[in-house]
Task: inverse folding
């Protein structure tokens, strides 16, 4: 693909809304007129009036952080989560190691073994958040949508170790109902079904 | 073989030359021209099952398989074209039919030929489908087989049959239900020598190691340390694959051992017995412990040691001997020295002239006095090759019948225990009788040894027809009391015939120790055991002894192997403690203190460790001593009663391989034939007790229906450091077996 499509700045007929901006004063006289208008004209008092009115109505617009947190976009990349399968509650991670391999900061490690049912079990999984650059590659490469980015961006704790082991990231089994399908970075696109080429099946 | 003239032909318009016997693929690889393959293995005959190596020849219709076709003069070969690419793509698509999409958990992922070739040929969708029959993963013990992953390339079967010789597995064709089967229908587990070569050659994840399964994704094993195996005198080149122990434990751990399976094979002890690294004594670094070991050495009169140590360690021990006036005792190496001395004075050369390569190329092979299958698996593999490629006539002379060799051995001769001297004399007579006159009462010796005259006649007549002959001499002959006379006979054979003699020493570095150390006959006074029992024990065997030193996968050093080549050991996992060199530095206290053990390599071989490459110890010519001609054979001993043979098992060669595989020592078994059971009035599963050299054994008795005769196999690897004493004596021992009432 060439870069022409990106270099073309002609916005054409797209749905942009042009903003009406008055032209800037150029001569000294015009500038003086603008200052007088803004300084002692009603513009100054409009602002003061709005503040006074809202204060009297007790409608507070400021977010009361930390007791109040704004929702954050699904593609934001904060501290990781390990998800479970929604139906069975089994862990999604199969231990394929792709995240460990792709991680640019080399900060993922996992221990695997054979479990009682002769399947591959991930016994420990850790991300060293001191090194993680939150690039999102791990979430993107994961074939199982197991490791994803959560929305918890407050990396504060008494101990570094508090964020980084499997127990901290994995959805607790009794919170399974609250687990949502992850829509963010690395998730399937809404039209994924149409993109898949079906293989033949003999039965 | 007839040597034909070289053949000139063209690959992709480049003029190339094929030597006699070379296929198109061989030439292409030599010339760095790429032809894709899936089933080709250097070490076995072309399998020709994958058809990926198709090439076109100008002027002829249809493509040919380059892996099995020899070129003819002036043909023009094309290795790549649009239609070849298409064909190869189709082959890959057929491989992919119903291949489970489980790369995510497959142990081969990342090093899988199927993955690689799919990417190479751009296969991103599947056009074919068939109904998949139900298939189950088979657990064969150390090895697991998943038929749904198998691509039926036959590499495993060919390797087992042609390179190893066990012939334990076979391929059964049946369309989409084809799969690999155990040849022994009555067993659900593999009863082979468990070399694990089939795992190594499998291009996909169909055959995998039960121990390694799911323990690590293989690309994480990014520390690959080339070294040599320390378990036997072959000194095979291996790679230790290393990674941190676990998420929270940063210490290095060996996860598996791999080898260059294209060209060579290793055995199960080397492949699975790697986990024997030692931990330093907690107080090792403290001065008190250090003073303790130094004082122990100063007080001692003798150092007892074995030959599973590096040349450098042996050299330091020799220095300690000179400095402190100690005795150095190593019975097995001393026996070897005596053997080699006698051999040298009768043959005129310090060393026997046989190499493993000679075995591979031989057309007559005689093995005497060795359970070769475990004493040196590589010699056995060479015998297999000689049989498969040159139809070599192999004679196996040993009191214990060896079932697994029945595929390749044409003549089994079971001689009487203890009569090795007579056996060798008879052999010398049969091989040289026309050249030399031995003072030998053939009738008497033949009767005592139980080696028939017709059998000798056969060896002689085969020998007349054979061009390349090898005589393999096992450690039973070196441990024998009459070792010197045996060596004289052998010396004469080497001198007066074209038969090459290959000596199989007992331990990994017996030749090195015998070359470096001046050994004493008998210990006395206070003893320090170096990897042996003694009043004070310095040991590299995990958590054994008074002072812990690094094990053989934790130090650099050299071995002299069976081919008299100098082989290098490297550090796979670190040892954060002190070694023999540190102790020596304290005691020697002279200006030539060495920082590292390997600085001694230069003193031994005249070359720095780092620049040492492919060094060969050359045999020297010495004067022949007329008194050292074979002596007349006096009475041959007889061994009556119950006999056991102290033997290794396929996976356990010594205490190091034993600890590394977590073998349950209580399950170590005494294995005998039905005949042995009847004679000893014991039955399968009985607990028995007996004693050798004052060491008590308590074993479960197991009947092996493939065994014959009345000698049972008794493993000694589970006796910790005492094992070395038990394996360096004459291995046949008379015992009194007592059944334990439970
Ligand atoms: S976000 Fe990037 S740096 Fe962080 S763990 Fe994932 S791949 Fe590694
Ligand atoms: S990529 Fe996903 S499935 Fe694979 S190991 Fe990482 S988290 Fe588990
Ligand atoms: S382990 Fe070795 S002997 Fe056993 S089946 Fe595999 S290749 Fe054959
Ligand atoms: S098990 Fe492996 S080596 Fe053997 S035939 Fe199947 S794919 Fe080939
Ligand atoms: S034990 Fe001997 S044959 Fe086996 S891998 Fe080690 S050196 Fe090679
Ligand atoms: S390499 Fe020639 S057929 Fe497989």
Result:
């Amino acid at each position: 693909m060439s870069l022409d499509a990106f270099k073309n700045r002609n916005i054409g007929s797209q749905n942009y809304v042009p903003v009406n901006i008055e032209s800037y004063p150029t001569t000294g006289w015009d500038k003086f007129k603008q200052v007088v208008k803004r300084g002692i004209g009603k513009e100054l008092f409009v602002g003061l009036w709005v503040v006074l009115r809202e204060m009297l109505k007790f409608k507070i617009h400021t977010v009361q952080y930390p007791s109040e947190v704004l929702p954050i976009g699904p593609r934001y990349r904060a501290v990781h989560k390990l998800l479970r399968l929604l139906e069975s509650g089994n862990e999604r991670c199969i231990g394929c190691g792709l995240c460990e391999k792709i991680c640019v900061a080399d900060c993922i490690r996992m221990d695997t073994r054979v479990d009682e049912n002769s399947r591959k079990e991930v016994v420990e999984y850790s991300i060293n958040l001191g090194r993680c650059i939150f690039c999102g590659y791990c979430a993107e490469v994961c074939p199982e949508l197991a490791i994803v980015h959560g929305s918890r961006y407050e990396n504060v704790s008494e101990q570094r170790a508090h964020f980084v082991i499997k127990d901290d990231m994995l959805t607790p089994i009794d919170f399974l109902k609250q687990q949502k399908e992850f829509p963010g970075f690395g998730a399937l696109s809404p039209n994924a079904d149409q993109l898949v080429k079906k293989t033949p099946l003999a039965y | 073989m007839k040597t034909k003239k070289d053949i000139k032909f063209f690959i992709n318009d480049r003029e190339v030359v094929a030597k006699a016997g070379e296929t198109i693929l061989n030439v292409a690889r030599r010339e760095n021209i790429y032809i894709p393959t899936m089933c080709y293995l250097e070490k076995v005959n072309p399998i020709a099952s994958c058809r990926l190596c198709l090439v076109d020849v100008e002027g002829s219709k249809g493509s040919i398989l380059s892996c099995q076709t020899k070129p003819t003069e002036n043909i023009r070969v094309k290795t790549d074209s649009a239609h070849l690419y298409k064909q190869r793509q189709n082959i890959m698509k057929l491989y992919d039919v119903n291949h489970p999409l489980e790369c995510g958990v497959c142990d081969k992922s990342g090093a899988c030929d199927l993955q690689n070739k799919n990417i190479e040929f751009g296969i991103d969708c599947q056009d074919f489908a068939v109904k998949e029959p139900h298939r189950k993963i088979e657990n064969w013990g150390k090895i697991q087989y998943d038929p749904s992953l198998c691509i039926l390339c036959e590499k495993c079967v060919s390797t087992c049959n042609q390179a190893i010789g066990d012939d334990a597995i076979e391929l059964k064709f049946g369309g989409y239900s084809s799969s690999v089967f155990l040849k022994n229908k009555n067993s659900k587990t593999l009863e082979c020598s468990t070399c694990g070569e089939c795992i190594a050659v499998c291009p996909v994840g169909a055959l995998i190691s039960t121990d390694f399964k799911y323990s690590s994704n293989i690309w994480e094993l990014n520390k690959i340390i080339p070294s040599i195996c320390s378990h036997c005198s072959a000194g095979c080149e291996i790679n230790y694959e290393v990674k941190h122990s676990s998420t929270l434990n940063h210490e290095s751990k060996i996860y598996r051992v791999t080898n260059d399976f294209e060209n060579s094979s290793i055995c199960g002890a080397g492949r699975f017995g790697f986990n024997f690294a030692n931990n330093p004594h907690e107080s090792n670094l403290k001065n008190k412990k250090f003073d303790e070991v130094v004082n122990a050495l100063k007080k001692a009169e003798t150092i007892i040691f074995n030959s599973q140590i590096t040349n450098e360690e042996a050299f330091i021990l020799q220095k300690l001997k000179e400095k402190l006036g100690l005795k150095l005792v190593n019975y097995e190496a001393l026996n070897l020295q005596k053997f080699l001395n006698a051999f040298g004075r009768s043959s005129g050369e310090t060393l026997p002239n046989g190499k493993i390569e000679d075995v591979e190329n031989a057309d007559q092979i005689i093995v005497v006095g060795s359970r070769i299958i475990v004493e040196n698996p590589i010699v056995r593999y060479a015998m297999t090759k000689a049989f498969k490629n040159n139809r070599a006539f192999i004679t196996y002379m040993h009191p214990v019948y060896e079932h697994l060799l029945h595929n390749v051995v044409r003549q089994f001769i079971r001689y009487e225990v203890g009569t090795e001297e007579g056996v060798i004399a008879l052999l010398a007579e049969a091989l040289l009788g026309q050249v030399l006159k031995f003072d030998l009462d053939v009738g008497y010796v033949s009767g005592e040894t139980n080696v028939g005259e017709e059998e000798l006649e056969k060896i002689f007549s085969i020998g007349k027809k054979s061009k390349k002959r090898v005589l393999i001499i096992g450690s039973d002959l070196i441990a024998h009391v009459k070792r010197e006379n045996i060596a004289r006979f052998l010396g004469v054979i080497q001198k007066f015939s074209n038969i090459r003699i290959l000596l199989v020493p007992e331990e990994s570095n017996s030749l090195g120790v015998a070359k470096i150390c001046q050994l004493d006959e008998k210990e006395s006074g206070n003893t320090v055991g170096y990897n042996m029992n003694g009043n004070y024990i310095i040991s590299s065997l995990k958590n054994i002894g008074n002072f812990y030193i690094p094990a053989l996968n934790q130090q650099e050093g050299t071995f002299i192997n069976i081919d008299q080549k100098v082989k290098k050991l490297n550090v796979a996992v670190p040892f954060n403690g002190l070694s023999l060199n540190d102790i020596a530095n304290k005691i020697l206290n002279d200006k030539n203190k060495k920082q590292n053990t390997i600085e001694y390599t230069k003193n031994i071989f005249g070359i720095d460790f780092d620049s040492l490459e492919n060094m060969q110890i050359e045999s020297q010519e010495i004067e022949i001593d007329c008194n050292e001609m074979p002596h007349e054979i006096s009475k041959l001993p007889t061994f009556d009663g119950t006999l056991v043979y102290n033997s290794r098992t396929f996976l356990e060669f010594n205490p190091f391989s034993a600890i590394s595989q977590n073998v349950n020592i209580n399950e170590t078994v005494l294995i005998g034939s039905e005949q042995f059971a009847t004679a000893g009035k014991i039955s399968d599963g009985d607990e028995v007790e007996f004693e050798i050299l004052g060491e008590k054994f308590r074993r479960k008795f197991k009947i092996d229906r493939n065994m014959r005769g009345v000698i049972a196999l008794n493993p000694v690897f589970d006796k910790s450091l005492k094992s070395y004493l038990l394996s360096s004596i004459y291995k046949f021992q008379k015992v009194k077996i007592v059944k334990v009432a439970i």
